[in-house]
Amino acid sequence: MTGLPKEHMEQDGFVLPYGDHQNDGLVQVSFTLPVKDGPLGDEAARQVMRSMALKEPQVVESTPLGEGYTFFVGYGKLTRPVELAKLKVARPLWDKLEPQAIERTIRERLGREIVVVGAATGSDAHTVGLDAILNYKGFAGDHGLEAYSGFKVVNMGSQVPNEALVQRALEVKADAVLVSQVVTQGNVHLSNLTNLVELIEAEGFRDRVVLVAGGPRITHALAIELGYDAGFGPGTKPQDVASYLAQEVSKRKSLYSNRAF
Amino acid sequence: MTGLPKEHMEQDGFVLPYGDHQNDGLVQVSFTLPVKDGPLGDEAARQVMRSMALKEPQVVESTPLGEGYTFFVGYGKLTRPVELAKLKVARPLWDKLEPQAIERTIRERLGREIVVVGAATGSDAHTVGLDAILNYKGFAGDHGLEAYSGFKVVNMGSQVPNEALVQRALEVKADAVLVSQVVTQGNVHLSNLTNLVELIEAEGFRDRVVLVAGGPRITHALAIELGYDAGFGPGTKPQDVASYLAQEVSKRKSLYSNRAF
Amino acid sequence: MLRFEVDRRLVEECHRLSSEIVEQVRKETAGFTTVAIERSVARLFGIDGVNSQGVPLPNVVVDHLRAADKLGDGVAVHLANACNALGLTPAETAQRVSEGKLDLSSLGWQGTEANRKTARDLAKAALERIGARRRERESLLEALPVPETPWLYVIVATGNIYEDVIQAKMAASQGADVIAVIRSTGQSLLDYVPYGATTEGYGGTYATQENFRIMREALDEESHRLGRYIRLVNYCSGLCMPEIAAMGAIERLDMMLNDAMYGILFRDINAERTFIDQGFSRMLNAYAGVIINTGEDNYLTTVDAFNSGQSVLASQFINYHFARRAGLRDEAIGLGHAFQIDPAIEDSLSYEIASALLVRALFPRCPVKYMPPTVHKTGDIFFAHALDASFNMVSVLTGQSIHLVGMLTEAVHTPLLQDRYASIRAAKYMRTAAKRLGESLILKEDSVIDARSKGLLLKCADLLRDVRRKGLFQAIEEGVFAGVKRTRSGGKGREGVIRKSEWYQNPIEELIRQELSVEPGKEDSNS
Amino acid sequence: MLRFEVDRRLVEECHRLSSEIVEQVRKETAGFTTVAIERSVARLFGIDGVNSQGVPLPNVVVDHLRAADKLGDGVAVHLANACNALGLTPAETAQRVSEGKLDLSSLGWQGTEANRKTARDLAKAALERIGARRRERESLLEALPVPETPWLYVIVATGNIYEDVIQAKMAASQGADVIAVIRSTGQSLLDYVPYGATTEGYGGTYATQENFRIMREALDEESHRLGRYIRLVNYCSGLCMPEIAAMGAIERLDMMLNDAMYGILFRDINAERTFIDQGFSRMLNAYAGVIINTGEDNYLTTVDAFNSGQSVLASQFINYHFARRAGLRDEAIGLGHAFQIDPAIEDSLSYEIASALLVRALFPRCPVKYMPPTVHKTGDIFFAHALDASFNMVSVLTGQSIHLVGMLTEAVHTPLLQDRYASIRAAKYMRTAAKRLGESLILKEDSVIDARSKGLLLKCADLLRDVRRKGLFQAIEEGVFAGVKRTRSGGKGREGVIRKSEWYQNPIEELIRQELSVEPGKEDSNS
Ligand code: B12
Ligand code: B12
Ligand SMILES: Cc1ncc(COP(=O)(O)O)c(C=O)c1O
Ligand SMILES: Cc1ncc(COP(=O)(O)O)c(C=O)c1O
Predict the structure, then answer these.
(1) C150 preceded by cis ω (within 30°)?
(2) Burial label, B259 (beta-carbon count in 10 A; 0-12, 13-18, 19+)
(3) Contacts of A202 (CB under 8 A, 6+ apart)
């Protein structure tokens, strides 16, 4: 999600799914329909696959799941290619730095500690991801922000109401607010994240804080769309986040040199 | 595929895939794209899902498979429902009979043995399915056509050229020709099956023979489309085929009472 | 099944240590009740429903007494007093209190003996109701036996009880033996139990008495249709632990997730409150014939499973002794265990077998609840399914009793209908295919498995010695379990801990102790 | 790995019986050669390419001699004669014959001794070429060792050699150790080998020398990149068995599917032809350092695996002795075995372990090629994947050497790129996770596994006694193997069996026998 080699972003051409032969368009699908199993059910499943623009839809399995529901596995061929050059991808605008470079950037460009407040908000109690980023211990062999002398970390833990997080950010004069959202059922993460931005805007410090979201279903693009400055998904390393914050907070310093904190 | 209870064919209403909630439309997909893994690859995968009319496309896994290819697992929501009443399903027009009833039908309605010739044609060497239908031993506890006194069975085995099958059918004055096609790569089964119908038509006995196709990717609808009288797919029992042939050959007798054999 | 021979002396030491650890906690908390315990008593006395602001009446009554500084006596005598004074049932009393028509603290005192007796009578009626449900279960189990172990346990979690019913019935018909309705995020921190049928939750469905009833009824129907009794599970953890235990007892739930420390570690609930609550809730579980499920499996989500196996075992010993002290028989103590070692580790499967064998050997009569891999699953649903296949194998090989069916979509979403199907299918296959696998094999001395089991037990004993030395509160403060540190006086819900007055009475507890012959500070003898 | 102790006396009896069975067949077929053998000699003498009608030159030459009724002498002397008479290489000779410019039978005879010598020189050159490729493999294996067993063996089968290359390289980079290019349906019944690079096949890609070369080159590249030698496999079954063995030897294939009876049973190829062909093709395999893969696994697709395990074992004994007689060392005899018991059967996993253990114990030095479940897979790709997980486990537990990676889409299509990935991933996981599992366990006497292994061996011995009594041809006629009945004189390709004349010479065979010290009718002593 960050510091990727250029070629990851710069492919072009038209691509189709590839199963057995170049451009055969093969896609595997599975779904459940509220129909009985039998020829009608199979045809309904093929119809679903046709709705998905799949040619030569094949139902390779139909299993009754219980009263009036059937599970289908199918394969079909997609014929509409994706034009890579036309895809809009929110591009990360920072470089991945080595730990020493991160410390140096903060020391030399900012000249003081970066204060971050992090929390798993709302009723979300998943802290492993947040802790992985913030705590000394870190993740996959990479230490968390606490391990850097350039960061001062306040980890509020789990199930933190957005109001409490905003309060704390104001108290400690946070440079960055880091939110983790893991539970996504009913899109609860979207409303939680949106609500936080609104609260921060209402408190009038949105432009003085770098706002970051993370979690297994978060992408940079989604975060941007929701009004965040950056988003970090699965597999994020603390170093990614540290690189970003070091660069972003330093950059903002010059932009808002008159900032209150 | 045969003798199904009516309700299997007579459902109506609009249906959508069902994952977690009624009509949530949830569908699982997986496919491979010739793209590198990374944000662009993920976006290409989401674009593929959008081409499949999936809303809220989620890429939940992207794994590099090797030089420039990435495997994706995704979930998305289909919003266009299937109208069951509008589906066209080729309906089987025979009833499933018990073995005694099959024997009786042949005895009383036809008054002689039904001669069937069966083969796995072309380069297809899969005989297990064909044998399951024809041989005494049968399939899943159900004896094959050989076990009926009403059938005389010629099982030509595997890799039989269409020409040889046609020749033999003429020789033994077959009432029914049964073809098995298991290998489907490159749609080889379609060309094989089509070719057989053409040969039989060329020999001028298409109307004197009941033409049946079977195999794991065969459906009744497909068989009809290819010019066959019936098609039998996975899980077919010999009794299904025996029921069908007993009724169909007897019916034809009255239609073509002047038939040569 | 495959067997591991434990060092009996060491095991006895572990039991002694944990019994002492637990007794220490009991002593330090014996002088307290909690708002949740009192609300449960209120519920068991028949108080239910909500007031015009939607506040549950048990909360109304307890808050009312608390405001009058009378809660230290327990709700029971005060409700009994109202009964004696006004001839009102507790439900009627609560109704009046909630309407502001009655002030319990200003009611004339009808005499301690009389009130205590009435309280005991009310308690007796409550326990009879629970006993009836327990006997109902017993006869259903006789009529509709569950033929195979491990029982296949699946969760439903749509957030909508009516969808849950559809999914639960289908799961049962596919082969599930146990249905757990997962509750919504956030419920555990509510200091009240939501009311009525609910259709909106996140990551789960609210635990309400009506939801319990709806699901129990649906599963009873399905049990009869299938000729196999389908067990129903919910959670009695969180701030309402004992209340939910009471609701579960009334609605004939069969299992309840009930852990002595989960709330402390994973929900930052106050430690004293949790220990006090778990004691009473487990008594209710015991009386109701409920099998509890402890939550040690959760530890392996925050610490590494390979390195921290001993903390799971130590916690199992501790949970076990808390449970025994609450009158639970071994057969009702479903210890939580999990398959969570990083699959990238060499010999991970052997290590999983080692710990699964060990827990069976240590607690031979306890129905271990064996949890599937979750942490190391990713969106690669195919690999997740393969990992579950290993888990299924280990479960059958080592003779586990309650098998929480792993989901191929664990890292993606709460299970879809089809996910549950695929996972049940795979688990059923293994139960059949490996039926006598364990009987065919003998563990080789000093092999990688044997060495790992032995090593784990040694480390567990060390850990228990350490916890015994410093006390459980201190151990928790140091992050011994799940790598989570919690102070004794910190956490949520501490304000709900109430010092008992000298007149304190909890007649439900008294009666259960009497009927199950559980003396405070002693375990019953079936051990 | 887990071990099973066999009854040595019984095993020796099985070996004696099968050696006798095989010797009987050898005696009865010793007086014959086949068109395919002669074409292989022609190929090894350097004849390649096709004529203007696309007929391969080896066929042209052999048909030419046959038409002149000279094939009974073997092609070798006639090619040598042309060489001595006209100073032409065999390739030039073939070219002229094909152009109708040369009639071998009307060429002046250059003397038997001289011709025989020239033939031997040509053979020596051919074997040197093969020997060089063999040494090349040996040094590559030293430089690029394959660290883990079982080797993961996957198939590619796009029908297009260039797509196959892409898929094969990716499979190798994902962890595959062995790549088999499956050939197109129908090829086995062609009485010639197609020529050149091919891009259209059904259910597989044509086996041609150019395709072999293209794939070997690509895999060599990949081997270097990965630092691990990737083995290449193709089939030498069917009507061109020995020719393809020759091509494989020249193109440094590492394994070849080569079964003494597969063609008879599964392709209705004439039995005598098959037995004769397999003998010579295996000598070529032996000389080339190729590991053969026998095909007993296939039996379990036409008969029930639970009931017919003994026929697989009996056939393994027979195949083994055919192989030994052709000079193959134990280490090069990859016996086919399979995991095919109906997963619905109780204890199916234990039965699979039993037979997998047994085959390891019976042929301790032979690298068993363990085949995944196929027959009982359906389009439920999730369940198929779970079934493969069991297969993977048994393979590692019982120490199999060549692991054909099962595909979750077995019942659907030849593997897609992603199917192969998912399946390799699961197999790799098990190889790591269960590395020392087998070392940790001991088989319990008289357990379900032990009893099954013992019972199978007893039945196998009975079956071999029966086959010994009636002879192999008769046994095949009665449908003993795979439930398929074939008469001795029936089947395809019988017209290609040629009685050797008294002048018959096959210098390739002679030299191989000499170099590997294999006498007709005797097995070498490493047994
Ligand atoms: C561990 C776990 C738990 C533990 C949590 C312990 C703890 N203290 O965190 C326990 C057992 C307590 C638990 C409970 C529940 N869980 Co849970 N849990 C998981 C599990 C197995 C792993 C999550 C995890 O730790 N991943 C490892 C970390 C390192 O990955 P990560 O979170 O993605 O973090 C990385 C990135 O996303 C990113 N990141 C994450 N946060 C942040 C923040 C910032 C600022 C940045 C920069 C980056 C970042 O960086 C991290 C490192 O790379 C997942 C399933 C799975 N395999 O994913 C389910 C899962 C998340 N849980 C789930 C549910 C539903 C629950 C419950 C609600 C169930 C219930 N009703 O009881 C409860 C209640 C929890 C609550 N109130 O929120 C669901 C969520 C479904 C959904 N999509 O909505 C999942 C997916 C399981 C499932 N399939 O049902 N759970
Ligand atoms: C057994 C088997 C074999 C055996 C066949 C033995 C034999 N004598 O039949 C052996 C090992 C020899 C074999 C070889 C090959 N096989 Co194969 N084989 C299978 C396997 C595992 C099972 C097929 C089977 O027996 N099913 C059981 C029967 C009962 O089911 P069925 O055929 O569907 O039949 C039922 C119905 O379809 C119907 N039916 C079928 N025929 C007929 C006919 C009539 C008239 C009627 C009424 C009904 C009917 O009724 C039957 C009973 O219900 C499948 C994978 C799978 N699990 O499906 C691969 C499979 C079919 N094989 C496959 C391939 C590619 C091959 C090879 C070409 C590979 C190679 N290149 O070497 C070879 C060569 C074969 C050839 N020339 O055709 C592919 C086909 C891919 C595709 N879709 O194109 C499959 C799907 C495997 C795969 N994923 O790659 N194979
Ligand atoms: C003992 C126990 N209680 C409760 C829960 C669920 O969490 P919550 O109490 O937040 O609903 C779990 C999680 O699996 C658990 O193991
Ligand atoms: C020994 C052997 N030869 C050949 C084949 C393949 O069939 P065919 O020879 O028709 O290509 C198999 C099938 O797996 C086999 O096991």
Answers:
(1) yes
(2) middle
(3) none
Query: What distance lies between CA D414 and its chain's CA centroid?
Result: 21
Q: What is the DSSP string of B95-156?
A: ----HHHHHHHIIIII-SPEEEEEEEBTT----HHHHHHHSTT-BTTB--GGGSTTEEEEE-
What average pLDDT score do residues C142-163 get?
96
Nearest CA in chain C to B60: C379
Summary mean pLDDT of chain C: 97
Q: Are residues A187 and A131 in the same domain?
A: yes
Ligand located closest to C182 CA:
1
C436 reaches D (C-beta below 8 A): yes
Q: Do C416 and B22 make contact, defined as CB atoms within 8 angstroms?
A: no
Hey, what are B234's tokens? 């996975």
For residues A130 and A72, membership in a common domain is answered with: no
Say yes or no: B45 and B164 in one domain: no
Rounded average pLDDT over C468-481: 98
pLDDT at B1 over 60: no
State ipTM.
0.96
Q: Note the pLDDT tens digit of each residue in A191-216.
A: 999 999 999 999 999 999 999 999 99
The residue behind tokens 């039965």 is D351
Residue A178: its H or E element: strand A176-180
The closest alpha carbon to C7, from C337, C400, C334, C456, belongs to: C456
Note the pLDDT of residue A49. 98
C143 touches chain D (CB under 8 A): no
Contact C183, C215 (CB under 8 A): no
Average pLDDT over residues C155-162: 96
In a domain, A91, yes or no: no
Q: Tell whether B41 is covered by a domain.
A: yes
Whether the pTM exceeds 0.80: the reply is yes
Give one DSSP letter per residue of C172-231, joined into a string.
HHHT-SEEEEPPPTTGGG-SS---S-----SSS----HHHHHHHHHHHHHHHHHHTSPPE
Residues 6+ apart with CB under 8 A from B22: A34, C163
- Among residues A31, A55, A86, the one where a domain terminates is A86
**DSSP-derived secondary structure letter, A142:** B
Of D268, D379, D417, the CB nearest to B32: D417
- Tens-place pLDDT, residues D243-278: 999 999 999 999 999 999 999 999 999 999 999 999
Query: How much of chain C exceeds pLDDT 90, in percent?
Result: 97
Q: Is D407 on the interface with C (CB under 8 A)?
A: no
Domain-embedded: residue B235:
yes
Determine the pLDDT at residue C86. Answer: 97
Give the tokens for residue D126: 């051919």
Q: Is the same domain home to B217 and B114?
A: yes
Find residues 57-86 of chain A whose CB sits inside 8 Å of chain B: 58, 69, 78, 80, 82, 84
Tally of structural domains, chain B: 2
CATH number of the structural domain spanning residue A57: 3.30.30.60
Residues B113 and B79 in one domain: no
Indicate yes or no: CB of D386 within 8 angstroms of CB of C429. yes
- Exactly one of C169, C369, C377, C492 is catalytic; which is it? C369
Residues of chain D in contact with residue C429, where contact means CB-CB under 8 angstroms, are: 343, 383, 386-387
Boundary of a domain, candidates B86, B108, B125: B86
Residues B107 and B197 in one domain: yes
Q: Which DSSP state fits C415?
A: P
User: What mean pLDDT is predicted for residues C214-224?
Assistant: 98
Candidate of C266, C269, C290, C369 to mutate for ligand 3, largest count of ligand atoms within 8 Å of Cβ: C266
Both structure tokens of B177 = 């020709």
Can you give the CATH number for the domain in which B168 is found?
3.40.50.280
Read off the pLDDT of each residue in D340-367 and give the average, rounded to a whole number. Answer: 98
C226 vs D522, which has greater pLDDT? C226
Nearest partner of C95 among C79, C111, C109, judged by Cα: C79
CA-proximal residue: ligand 1, atom 64 (nearest): C203
